[in-house]
TrEMBL record:
Residues 8-127 form the Longin domain. It is found in: Endomembrane system. InterPro entries: Longin-like_dom_sf, Longin_dom. Belongs to the synaptobrevin family. SMART domains: Longin. GO terms for biological process: endoplasmic reticulum to Golgi vesicle-mediated transport; protein transport. Keywords: Lipoprotein, Membrane, Methylation, Palmitate, Prenylation, Protein transport, Transport. Pfam families: Longin (PF13774). This is YKT6A protein. The gene is Ykt6a.
Length: 137
């Protein structure tokens, strides 16, 4: 059971844009990592774009399950995990991250923000904290 991506996006007019993201692509071949990360960023944006404000959904994309939560204020979170990762845990993580993000980052910065301009460093910590360690043989 793995988490691969955790993203915070803003669903404003006219489209969705990424505010901050963390990725764990260590389980992929070194030469695949950048394209896998691009795929996850693109998929997160697309799923957030297609989800209505105030909604939660889980969408299967290739061998991944993408869990999205779009708050009514336009802040959205996407977790990309493998098929075995518990859905309930993903939505608990999204609730926690979006609440914390909205407390730490001014709402005025959301419409124009980008990963380079938003200072919120907790995503990498959450991504590793919520990884399920599988016991060895």
């Amino acid at each position: 059971m793995r988490l691969y991506s955790l993203s915070v996006l803003y669903k404003g007019d006219p489209k969705v844009h990424l505010l901050k993201a963390a990725y764990d692509v260590s389980s992929f071949n070194f030469f695949q990592r950048s394209s896998v990360q691009e795929f996850m960023a693109f998929t997160s944006q697309l799923i957030a774009e297609r989800s209505a404000p105030g909604s939660r959904a889980s969408v299967k994309e290739q061998e991944y399950l993408c869990h999205v939560y779009v708050r009514s204020d336009g802040l959205a979170g996407v977790v990309i995990a493998d098929n075995e990762y518990p859905q309930r845990v993903c939505f608990t993580l999204l609730d926690k991250v979006l609440d914390e993000f909205s407390r730490q980052v001014s709402k005025m910065d959301w419409p124009s923000g980008s990963p380079a301009t938003i200072s919120y460093s907790a995503l990498d910590g959450y991504l590793s904290k919520y990884q399920v360690q599988t016991p060895g043989p």
